[in-house]
Amino acid sequence: MNSYLRKREKLVKLLRAHATTIRRFGALRLGLFKPGGHAYTRPARDLSMLVEFAQGEKSYHNFVHLMCFLEDLLHKEVELITPDSLSPYIRSSVLAEVQYVSFDEQAG
Description:
The chain is α+β, with helices and mostly antiparallel strands. The chain has one domain (3-107): Beta Polymerase, domain 2. Helix content is 40%, strand content 19%. It is built from four helices and four strands; from the N terminus they run H-H-E-E-H-E-H-E. The chain has helices spanning 3-17, 19-24, 60-74, 91-97, and strands spanning 27-32, 47-53, 78-81, 99-102. Strand 2, helix 3 and strand 3 form a beta-alpha-beta unit. The longest helix has 15 residues, at 3-17. It starts with a helix and ends in a 6-residue tail after the last strand.
């Protein structure tokens, strides 16, 4: 297993360990993707994630507080993006490679 996959696996475990808190911000799932594979690049210390909110839970308050929680948890700058806000130039490539971590009640 390469370094990127090991880091991703650790990240998934950490996020799942904090599922209850993440759900409090209305998030159903977070999508992990590698921004370096797109037309733009971000520093390796940053992390890009898609967030999908439960119906009626998408708000500025939940978005900002979730982003701050993730940055504190991960000790990294987090670029949090909703699927609707993806640029049309990278949308298809991001959606093709994204790996979701679910936080809905059924997923545990």
